[in-house]
Amino acid sequence: MSKELRKTLSHQLADRILNRIMTEQLPDGEVFMTEEKVAEEFHVSRTVAREAVGRLRAFGIIEGRQRVGLIVRRPDPVRLFSAVLPSLALSQTDIHELACLRYALEVGAIELVIRNASDSQIDKLTELSEQFSAALERKVSMKKQKELEVAFHQMLLEMTGSRMIAGMQSLLVDFFHNLQDDPAGDENYRRTIREHKDLVSAIRRRDVEAARTVIREQIGQYLNDNCQSTEVSSTDLASERN
After folding, report:
1. pTM exceeding 0.70
2. What is the CATH number of domain 3-75?
3. Could you tell me which CATH class the domain 80-241 is placed in?
4. What does the pLDDT read at residue 224?
C-alpha cells in the first residue's frame, strides 16, 4: 500500500472514529477500545489504525493508556492553539492575520466584559491601571511594564466569564507583547495611560460603545505596528464606527 493511500485511509478512519464517539456521546474518560480492536472492527490494517489513532491523539480527542486501551478525551482548544501558535507566525502575513484575530476577539469580548464584570473586578482593573500608570511615570524596567500590561489585559479577559475566550486571547496578548519593541517615547507612554483610564471608565459606566472605541484604537495600534505591508489597517477596521 502506498504512503499516500495509507494516509488517506488513516484520515478517513480518524473521521469514522470521531463520528462514533460523537454519535454514541461517549463521555470524557470513557474507554473506547484498543488499537488492535480498532483495526479489527473497522477492517483496516494495524498500520492504518495506528496512524488514525495518532491523528486523534494529536488533537487531544483520545489518549492511550497501557493495559487499558484508548480513552475518550475532550480536546482543549486553548491547548491546541497554544501548540500551533508558533507555526502560525512565520511571516508578516501570518502576524497580520493573528493581529486581526486579536482585534476581533477583544472588540467582540468587550460586550461580555461590560455584561459580566463584578464591581470588585472593576476595582481590581482600576488598581492595575493605576499601577501601570505609576510604573510608566517612574520609567521602570521594560519587563515590569510588560508584566503590568499583561496583568491588565488578563483581568479584562477574566471579566468576560468565558474560559475559552480568555484562554485564546491570553495567548495572543502574550504573543504580541513578546513581539512588541520598546515604547517609542513619552507620547506612547501618555497614550497607553490614557487608553487604560478611558477603558476602565467606560467599563465602570457599563458603556459598551465607549469601551469598544477604546479597544479599537488600542488594538488597532498592533495592526499598524505589525501589518505595515498589508492593505488592512486599524483605520479600515475602525471605519465601521463612521
Report:
1. no
2. 1.10.10.10
3. mainly alpha
4. 61
